[in-house]
Amino acid sequence: MKTYLDCYPCFMEQALRTSRVATNDKKKIKKILDETGAMIKNMPMENTPAESGMLVYNKIKEITGVTDPYFNIKQQHIKEAKTLLPEMEAIIENAEDPLLTAIRIAIAGNVIDLGINKPFNLLEDIKKILTQEFALFDYESFKKDLTAAKNILYIGDNAGESVFDTLLIRQLKKPVIYAVRSQPVINDVTIKEAIDSGLDKVSEIIDSGCKAPGVVLSHATNKFLQVFNNADLIISKGQGNYEGLSDENNTIYFLLKAKCSVIASDLNVKEGDIIFKKA
Question: Is the pLDDT of residue 251 over 70?
Answer without folding.
Answer: yes
